[in-house]
Every structure is written in structure tokens, then in C-alpha cells.
Design goal:
- This protein is an alpha+beta fold.
- The strands form three sheets. A four-stranded antiparallel β-sheet has the order 6-7-3-8. A two-stranded antiparallel sheet has the order 1-2.
- The chain is elongated and about 90 Å long.
Length: 232
């Protein structure tokens, strides 16, 4: 007996009950369904990735806002001065000092106890200003470029703003400046690790691609299992 699908194309049932050979139009419909499902998964994955990035940024901004709101006027001014100095010096660090050796003159963290002083933003700004007055080419950065400081972006590091060539070159500069090995430390600045936002983006895209590839096959497997259970 001839059988025709909705498009008027002929197809034949196989001998086994409950099994038949799909028509060309049915095959196309299944492919379209698979592609639509993949598209939905991709869109959902991208939306989740964007949502995670936005939430990460909102949490960071809210945390900074709360911290700023709890500061005294003098502390807020000092923090603003430090943030501006970091922004001004960041480009120079990235363009001129990454992968090169220079001298660390000071390393400070908020709340750090050093020589009887628990460092506030005002203390850290005063510390940097003192070095800047003595060494005019000194600049301010964070620990993100230093493996020795665990890439800590919350720390404040005063460095000499010159490429001193090598570890030996830094040691010679320190000696000429009258600084001891404890006061002047050689460091090779290296690129920072991936930040949280970029990590979330990469992981989100990878998960999205994997789901887009795997989901249609899982969906078809589930349908076959249901079909087999019904025919049994």
C-alpha cells in the first residue's frame, strides 16, 4: 500500500511493526527542529552569560559604593587621589614596563600594619607622595602585575617608572639611589591573569557551544526512548 505524507511525497512502512522510513520532508522537518532547538540553546546561553557579567559588575560597583559611602571626607579624597593616579599611570605600565625589570619602592595595602601604622587611604597616598617627591619618575600601580603579590589588584605598589633592563640593573639603580635590598626590590612586571568578567564570558561561551551541540542529540535520544516504550 502506498503512503503519502502531508507534502504529497510517498514513503513506505518497514516490515517491523511500529517502524517506518521517514519521508524526505519529514527528515527536513527534523533537521529544522534540531536547528531551532540549537538556536534557542545558544540564545539562552548568551543571555545567561550576559546576565552573569552584568551581575558581576553590579556587585563590584555596589561594593565600591558602599565602601566609599562609609569613608570620612579625608579618606574619600585620598582614595580618589589614589584611583586617579592609578588610572594615569596604568597606560604607561602596560606600554613601557610589562615584561621589563624595575624597582619596587613601596608596597601597601589598606589596613596593613607597618612600622606601627595601620595604613589608611590617606597614609598610602602620603607614602606614595613622599616617594614621588624624592624620585620624580616614580609611578603607582597595583599588585596585578606581580606574581610575588598574588596579582592583588587591591594593593598599592610604588615603582620606579623606568625600564632598568635586568635584575642586576635594578640592583645597581637601588644602590646608586642609596636604598637597601629591603627598601628597593627588583621585579619583572608580567601580564595579569584573566579577570573575573573575562573568565565568566569565556566559560559562558564554552558552555553555550557545548549545550548547543549536545542538546539536540539528547532530545532525539529521549524521543527514541519514548517511542520505543510506546511501541513496546
Amino acid at each position: 500500500m502506498d503512503n503519502f505524507d502531508s507534502a504529497g511525497q510517498r514513503f513506505e512502512y518497514s516490515i517491523e511493526p511500529g517502524h517506518y522510513s521517514p519521508s524526505p520532508s519529514q527528515v527536513k522537518d527534523r533537521k529544522r527542529s534540531r536547528y531551532r532547538l540549537m538556536g534557542k540553546v545558544v540564545i539562552l546561553g548568551l543571555l545567561l552569560t550576559v546576565t552573569a557579567i552584568v551581575l558581576s559588575l553590579v556587585i563590584t560597583l555596589f561594593s565600591n559604593y558602599r565602601q566609599l559611602g562609609s569613608l570620612t571626607a579625608s579618606e574619600a579624597i585620598a582614595k580618589s587621589s589614589l584611583d586617579e593616579q592609578l588610572r594615569n599611570d596604568r597606560g604607561f605600565v602596560q606600554q613601557q614596563l610589562l615584561g621589563r625589570w624595575t624597582a619596587q619602592l613601596s608596597y601597601k595595602q589598606l589596613g596593613q600594619l607597618y612600622n606601627g601604622i595601620t595604613y589608611s587611604y590617606a597614609d598610602i597616598w602620603a607614602d606614595f607622595s613622599q616617594f614621588k617627591a624624592k624620585y620624580p619618575t616614580a609611578i603607582l600601580t597595583t599588585g596585578e602585575w606581580f606574581t610575588a603579590h598574588d596579582r592583588d589588584k587591591s594593593s598599592y605598589v610604588t615603582i620606579e617608572g623606568q625600564n632598568l633592563g635586568s635584575k642586576a640593573g635594578v640592583q645597581a639603580w637601588c644602590k646608586n639611589a642609596g636604598l637597601t635590598a629591603q627598601q628597593c626590590i627588583p621585579h619583572e612586571l608580567t601580564k595579569a591573569k584573566l579577570d573575573l568578567t573575562l573568565k565568566i564570558t569565556i566559560v559562558g561561551l564554552i558552555v553555550t557551544v557545548v549545550l548547543a551541540i549536545v542538546t539536540p542529540f539528547i532530545n532525539n535520544w529521549v524521543k527514541r526512548r519514548r517511542s520505543a516504550g510506546t511501541s513496546g
